[in-house]
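Chapter review: from sequence to fold.
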Amino acid sequence: MLLSASGQDASEDGVTDDEVVAAAEALGEELAAAKESASEFAFTTMVMQCNEAISDETGLDYGSVCGADDDSCC
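The token string follows.
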């Protein structure tokens, strides 16, 4: 389970792995669109804020896995 890495059971939250993947894909699409229209500073700031929110929610240091300056993530 994707959420099991955070110490949470997906069924406890009522969220399925498919829903988590769909949300992640939607976020990726939104970030890709923002990258095209935002300044480099604004985009980097947005990615850092997303990383922080993901880390807060999951308990994982997401930024160390996918940094704002890592083009392979977006």
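Two observations follow directly from the output. Confidence is low (pLDDT under 50) at residues 1-6. The chain has four helices and no strands.
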